[in-house]
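Database export, one record per block. Field names are fixed; values are copied verbatim from the stored entry.
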Amino acid sequence: MVLNAYQPQYSKAAGEIITWIFKKSYHRRVYIMNTKLLKYISFGLVMVISIVLLLSIVMQNSYNENNENSGNNGNSYNSIDLSFIDENIGWAVQSNGYASDIVKTIDGGENWLNISSYKGNIIKIFFIDTLDGWAITQSNTSKAVSYAFLKTEDGGKTFKVKYKKTFKSISLVQMKHQTTDLIFFDKNSGYVMLSGKLLKTTDGGQKWSTITPNIPDFFVTEMCFINVDFGWVGGSVSINKNVNGDAYNAHIYCTTDGGNKWLDQFQISSIYGYQKTHNYQINGISFIDNKYGWFLIEDITDLHTELYRTVDGGKTYIAINSNNLYLSGPDSSDIEFLDKDIGFISYKPGGGSTGGGIYKTDDGGISFNNVSNTSSNGNIVVSGDILFVTPSNGYVICPTLHDGDFIIKTTDQGSTWNKIFHWYPDNTWE
């Protein structure tokens, strides 16, 4: 090998080139490794997120299926209901639209025990003894209303779904004014009213058949049965859609064979001269036997209320010109008569000069007096369903807008009322 004076420079340059190539190769390997690692990490994160989302969907679907989609278009709403089998033993349920609490009393409402919770919107309950009871859940969407029928055989500790029913294409008027009711006469025979339909069961709620009077565009708003065969339903029939707005006639139908056949006993298309432009609705029916009965009819358009009475089982009805029922805006909620003289009407807020509350009659409905005397501010401004267990002991459900929901009780035929239970807006209760 021949060496010359330039050899050290060439060696140095070659070394720098080799070092540069090595560094480049190293950094490229590191870059490639980091890139692959980043890809692996990203893929892993995507898989984890996908699994979490999938599990969330599955759990939500399972929750909805098992608990009947208790939401209401994403908006929660309160409902309260109660059932008593005697003057001491009773149950109450309160729902926020998504979950429900069931409480029980054995001393007429003096004390309550939370016996169970249900992840669904229970709107109605009914018990026939200390063990056997039924409940209804409701779930609303923009296109349908779905219900589930629940059964308990352990006094409300647990409930099982026995039947499901969905109603579609319900009108805005029907949706706005629909009411729900439930009654059983024994472990097998019962009736339920929901989404404008009347259903009947003869096997304890396993199966239900629709027995609504077969009248076009008729939807039920009230029912009253004095036994398993004898009963009345009230409702409305559309008469001229889209002519100055929808208009509805009010009807009363009677059955003496458990809903197989219906007799049209009453219909009205005008109150105080209004015709074909107003909506009329039956807001309450109360019969004490197969002869004496009363019902409330409301002009929904102007919120005028009229009381009718029959003494011959509905063959004839007479309008009673009560001294304080025809008011500018009373929104009647329920009616209950104990005998042919003593009866009660509850009013929701916005009821004109009534201001809402409970009104009592001692003369068969000719005159009424406000007997409301209890709430957080000293007056009942909101009242709902009326339930009398004995001639002396009665209860009224009072769902309020800002003070929570509460139940009031009377022990003197409705002369005075006292609060016995209160659900506060923060879901606490006492």
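Remark 1: Helices lie at 7-67, 172-177.
Remark 2: The chain has a mean pLDDT of 76.
End of record.
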